[in-house]
Design goal:
The protein is elongated, with a radius of gyration of 36 Å. By secondary structure, it is mainly alpha-helical. The chain has a domain of 67 residues. It has two helices and no strands.
C-alpha cells in the first residue's frame, strides 16, 4: 500500500521583509537620482566655470604684464612708450567693439 502524501507548500522565494526593504531602497535611489543628480551636475558646472574664468583672468593679466616688459625692452624710450602702444591698441580694440555693438531699437 502506498502512503498518501500531503501536498507540499511552495517554498518562499525570499523573505517579504527583504523584498520590502529592497523596494524602498530602489525607490529612494530613483528619487535621489532624479533630484540631486541634476543639482550636482549644475553645481559642478558652476564651480568649474568659475575656476576656469579666474584662471583665464590671471593668464590675461600675466600676458599684459609680459607684453609691457617685452615692449619696454624693444621700444626706444622709457616704459611710457610701451604703455602708450598698448594703450593705443586696447583703445582701438575697445572702439571697434563699441562700434559693432547693437543699439536698442526705438520703441
Amino acid at each position: 500500500m502506498t502512503v498518501p502524501t500531503r501536498p507540499t507548500e511552495p517554498a518562499p522565494s525570499a523573505d517579504w521583509a527583504d523584498q520590502a526593504a529592497d523596494t524602498v531602497v530602489k525607490v529612494v535611489d530613483a528619487v535621489r537620482e532624479k533630484t540631486t543628480g541634476p543639482v550636482l551636475t549644475a553645481a559642478r558646472a558652476i564651480v568649474y566655470g568659475l575656476i576656469g574664468f579666474f584662471a583665464a583672468l590671471v593668464a590675461l593679466i600675466l600676458l599684459v604684464i609680459a607684453l609691457v616688459r617685452v615692449l619696454d625692452v624693444y621700444l626706444p624710450g622709457e616704459v611710457w612708450s610701451a604703455y602708450l602702444l598698448l594703450g593705443l591698441l586696447f583703445s582701438g580694440g575697445g572702439l571697434l567693439v563699441w562700434r559693432r555693438r547693437y543699439a536698442p531699437e526705438p520703441v
